[in-house]
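Hypothesis: this fold can be encoded by more than one sequence.
Test: take the structure tokens below, design a sequence, compare later.
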């Protein structure tokens, strides 16, 4: 059984993209009636930044237009240089991001921190906020003095921050003149961020205020212990009935085929997508927005999971266990599966240390219809800048341009692995392998990757077969990905009440699957959700969708 440190498990969550809703968080700026119009309807829309793909090593496995990632079965031998000059001017910049790691050593004792500062040409004062404290800290920052804002702020997508768009519109720098259209050419690595990431980040009031952190198309994924599922009878092309049988057959004693964490709705994202239910919002050809909650396929997925729970296939702590502790149970074989972000593939493969066989599950079919999969928001949060004079904004953008260097570049290697011989050595295939110091001084504990990052690729150091398996899986599921139609759009009601309304529905789903509520409660809950703001959100999203068309 692999021994997992808390730091390692937190890193797994960070890569996977664990999401948290914050229903009780701040109403910053709510007393100012002049900052409430964040809709794009009726506004002149800033053109998206002109995409210019980075030049670099050719992938071993080709990407596709519909969202399959480029795959690299080995590390590039000849790294390119993506930045021609030191971006900074020797000044000090203040930055703030979420963190899933442990607090880093101080800058004066941290070789990784020092190396990045030297490359960037600035001193970095870094406010690093743990995921558990992020919402509380953001409440203070968003409600505080504008002059006290950090220069660069990570707006993490794993939380629902009430009136977030209003805060950004009022306090952050409008980046439209710097990034819209061909203006982004001054920042080649930022220009390498694909348009889909900018679209899913969205505009505010027709303007561009942030820089997105691009993410792959697959979203919430059922990660299985492949050997356990195969031994229980899993085959490709399985049906919902097959899934039920495999889950029952493999559950015995203190081993459960299905694991779930508190807040995951028993892994509902995977099951609702397999039932081809909308993911939060669907849009019709005429632009009408329909909530997933009112779709019969969504209700059917809840009923399906309820039966799985009655069968005893779920771990008994599915409503209370943390994602961190669930990951431990997954690695040690107590549970045969868990829902996590697709981006969790890297720790899943590397940290299982050959003691188990992680794999992304294919969706099962329902009623003869091939199952769908969850399409992620292509922007895992975004970065905003404090309002400043033109020269200062340009400096900050040069810093972010460096951090957004593409895979296969010298800059990417420094930001992700540190200094060769200090933080990493080379494996047989040339891949960076962290040293003992690199396990402590790294991009998890000093999370520069949440300030800016280039397009992500499929790469698992030293594991070419894992890359091939993931690429094959993507080719099968990406064409069936189900996208939340509200991504990148504005709704005043969602900005103000979305977190609370989501929590209401989530609690109802959890209660039904756990057996505390009957399935008959669902329709009444949906009716109440619609009357309390759901129908208003549908109207507002439709209006913004039409404006963005």
């Amino acid at each position: 059984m692999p021994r997992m440190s808390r730091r390692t498990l937190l890193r797994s969550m960070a890569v996977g993209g664990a999401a948290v809703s914050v229903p009780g968080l701040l109403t910053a700026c709510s007393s100012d009636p002049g900052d409430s119009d964040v809709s794009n309807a009726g506004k002149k829309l800033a053109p998206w930044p002109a995409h210019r793909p980075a030049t670099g090593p050719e992938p071993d496995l080709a990407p596709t237009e519909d969202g399959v990632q480029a795959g690299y079965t080995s590390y590039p031998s000849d790294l390119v240089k993506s930045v021609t000059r030191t971006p900074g001017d020797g000044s000090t910049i203040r930055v703030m991001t979420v963190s899933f790691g442990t607090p880093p050593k101080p800058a004066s004792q941290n070789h990784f921190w020092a190396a990045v500062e030297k490359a960037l040409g600035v001193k970095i004062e870094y406010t690093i906020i743990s995921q558990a404290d992020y919402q509380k800290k953001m409440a203070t920052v968003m409600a505080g003095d504008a002059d006290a804002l950090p220069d660069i702020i990570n707006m993490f997508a794993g939380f629902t921050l009430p009136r977030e768009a209003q805060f950004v519109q009022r306090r952050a720098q409008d980046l439209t003149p710097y990034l819209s259209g061909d203006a982004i050419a001054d920042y080649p690595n930022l220009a390498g961020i694909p348009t889909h990431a900018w679209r899913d980040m969205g505009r505010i009031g027709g303007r561009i205020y942030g820089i997105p952190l691009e993410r792959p198309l697959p979203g919430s994924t059922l990660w299985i212990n492949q050997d356990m599922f195969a031994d229980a009878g899993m085959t490709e092309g399985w049906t919902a009935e097959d899934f039920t049988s495999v889950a029952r057959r493999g559950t015995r004693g203190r081993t459960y085929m299905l694991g779930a964490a508190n807040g995951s709705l028993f892994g509902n994202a995977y099951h609702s997508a397999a039932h081809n239910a909308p993911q939060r919002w669907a849009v019709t050809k005429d632009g009408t927005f329909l909530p997933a909650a009112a779709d019969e396929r969504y209700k059917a997925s809840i009923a399906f999971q309820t039966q799985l729970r009655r069968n005893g296939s779920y771990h008994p702590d599915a409503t209370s266990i943390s994602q961190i502790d669930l990951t431990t149970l997954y690695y040690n074989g107590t549970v045969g599966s868990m829902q996590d972000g697709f981006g969790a593939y890297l720790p899943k493969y590397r940290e299982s240390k050959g003691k188990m066989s992680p794999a992304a599950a294919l969706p099962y079919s329902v009623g003869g219809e091939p199952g769908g999969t969850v399409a992620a928001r292509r922007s895992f949060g975004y970065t905003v800048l404090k309002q400043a004079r033109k020269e200062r904004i340009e400096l900050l953008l040069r810093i972010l341009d460096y951090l957004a260097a593409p895979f296969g570049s010298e800059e990417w290697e420094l930001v992700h692995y540190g200094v060769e011989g200090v933080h990493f050595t080379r494996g047989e295939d040339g891949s960076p392998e962290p040293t003992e110091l690199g396990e402590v001084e790294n991009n998890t504990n000093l999370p520069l990757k949440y300030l800016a990052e280039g397009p992500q690729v499929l790469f698992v150091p030293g594991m070419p077969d894992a890359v091939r398996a993931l690429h094959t899986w993507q080719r099968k599921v990406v064409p069936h990905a189900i996208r939340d139609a509200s991504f990148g759009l504005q709704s005043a009601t969602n900005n103000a009440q979305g977190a609370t309304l989501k929590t209401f529905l989530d609690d109802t789903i959890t209660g039904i699957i756990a057996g505390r509520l009957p399935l008959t409660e669902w329709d009444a809950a949906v009716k109440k959700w619609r009357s309390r703001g759901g129908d208003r959100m549908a109207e507002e999203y439709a209006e913004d969708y039409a404006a963005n068309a």
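The first strand starts at residue 92 and ends at 99. The chain has 18 helices and 14 strands.
Hypothesis status: open.
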